[in-house]
Amino acid sequence: MREELASLLQMNTWTLVERTPDMKIVKSKWVFRIKRGPTGEIDKFKARVVAVGSSQVQGIDYFETFSPVVKLTSLRLLLALANEEGMSMRQLDVKTAYLHGQLEEVVYMVPPPGSENKGMVCKLNKSLYGLKQSGRTWYRTLDAALLALGYKRLESDRCVYLLKKQGTKVILSVYVDDMLMFATNDQLLKNAIDDLGKYVDLKDLGEPRYILGIQVNHDKKEQKITENRR
């Protein structure tokens, strides 16, 4: 919990301001969950501060909420294509993804339990988890970064991006904060990860093993990919 609070403060997630009678204030809470590995084993325990989005009012605290995610069919096609063409591939995780998005609306939140400040509330600067617009804000932030890097968004799937350079290519699929990146060779893949890492905080998870409930087994020697749905 201390680590989560420290991360939120480091990213300037909110500014403490004095509470006034006219403020519309959303609640906050802690959410605890277990993150599991590819075989279902416990990887780590996570604690996260979230805003209680159910207390938001449309037209005041938020306006639009829609945000796309990669289609499962697209993901499977990309894995098959990468295997067929012998592409290098990596699974990436964006640390505190939503906090990269700058909040456009004015939203006040009760300080998280355990960090209360009498007479003060949090004026949110970033799109904290739990807000109804957070997914959309994060998608727009990432989309802008990828377009700035020269990627093209596919018309058939708004969460698949393509970057072509001198006969080589990089393909990226996005499901909120989970990404798969494919590239013509290892060096190109490394460069693409480094470039995107200048915009968002990335964690390289290595070759895809477990994504969206699918266990992925990649046999480079046999040039074969198999999937097991958990």
UniProtKB/TrEMBL annotation:
Domain of life: Eukaryota
InterPro entries, alphabetized: DNA/RNA_pol_sf, RVT_2
Coiled-coil intervals: none
GO annotation, biological process: DNA biosynthetic process
Limits of the Reverse transcriptase Ty1/copia-type domain: 12-226
Name listed for the protein in its UniProt record: Gag-Pol polyprotein
Organism the protein comes from: Ornithodoros erraticus (European soft tick)
